[in-house]
Amino acid sequence: MKVGVSFLTRNESLEETIKKIDESSADYIHVDMMDGVFVDEANYSVADFKKMFKNISKPLDVHMMVCSPNKYVKEFTKLKNVEYLTLHYESHRRPIDVINMIRHTNMKVGIAINPETKVSHIVPLLNHIDQVLVMSVKPGKGGQKFMNEILYKIETLKDIREENNYHYIISVDGGINDETAKLCKDSGADMVVSGSYVVLSDNYDEKINSLR
Ligand code: DX5
Ligand code: ZN
Questions:
Q1: DSSP single-letter state for residue 188
Q2: Phi first, then psi: what are they for 111, rounded to 5°?
Q3: 3-state secondary structure of 177
Q4: Where are the beta strands (DSSP E) in 19-142?
Q5: Given this model, what pLDDT does residue 205 score?
Q6: What are the DSSP E strand ranges found in the chain?
Q7: Residues 154-169, mean pLDDT to the nearest whole number
Q8: H-helix or E-strand containing 54?
Q9: Which residue, among 150, 126, 155, 122, has the nearest Cα to 138 in the 3D structure?
Q10: Which pTM does this prediction carry?
Q11: Residue 152: its pLDDT value, please?
């Protein structure tokens, strides 16, 4: 199981937390971008990210919780290390247009779905993407409780991938700890994203290992 670590919830400074994730055994730094419109809070601009990640070596898994994600694609191409750029299905009238924009860059493309969004909505997109990010909490903040009722989506996505020979990875984001990561793994997830469980601990690698 791959592990991405999110720094949204933390006790220490941003720089310190990012450095610790970069030096840990995590596979990705999961980057939550919020615009105060798609979700209540707003945090960083792409220019902020550029400064923040200047000296890091891990690949970035960017999760855009923003309206009109198309507006940010070009800017993200200027950031080094972005492996996945993920937009929310619910954030654009024609997600396929944004997917195609991203596919014309060097970045891989992901689609995220809110807990209430059914897999059936994204079926026509699955042939065009590299990651599905299944939200297991309402997007917008860390430290929420994992919603067990999303687990069936992981199984459905796995079946669709097998039946059609698609290649996307299935990631799960929100409320991940050792117990909920196990549920995701048993359902067929390839990656989990964890924030508070790892970042609020005093031993990142121990927590990361418990998720694999
Ligand atoms: C939620 C974010 C998550 C969040 C995960 O809106 O997308 O990435 O930071 O944090 P935890 O693991 O604390 O739920
Ligand atoms: Zn996220």
A1: T
A2: -125, 130
A3: coil
A4: 28-34, 60-65, 82-88, 108-113, 131-135
A5: 98
A6: 2-6, 28-34, 60-65, 82-88, 108-113, 131-135, 169-173, 191-194
A7: 98
A8: none
A9: 150
A10: 0.98
A11: 98
Report CA(104)–ligand 1 centroid distance (Å): 28
Percent of the chain topping pLDDT 90: 100
Residue 61, both tokens: 């898994």
Contact 35, 71 (CB under 8 A): no
Cβ(69) – ligand 1 distance below 6 Å: no
Which CATH number belongs to the domain containing residue 16 in this structure? 3.20.20.70
How many domains is the chain partitioned into structurally?
A: 1
For tokens 């067990």, the residue is 148
Structural domain boundaries, residue 78: 2-211
Ligand 2 center to residue 61 CA distance, Å?
9
Helix orientation angle between 178-187 and 204-211, rounded to the nearest 10 degrees: 30
Query: If 0-12 CB within 10 Å is exposed, 13-18 middle and 19+ buried, where does residue 77 land?
Result: middle
Structure tokens belonging to residue 2: 């791959």
Residue 179 and residue 148: Cα distance in Å, rounded? 11
The stretch 198-202 carries a mean pLDDT of 97
Q: Is 32 in the pocket of ligand 1 (CB under 6 A)?
A: yes
Exposed, middle or buried by CB within 10 Å (0-12, 13-18, 19+), for 144? middle
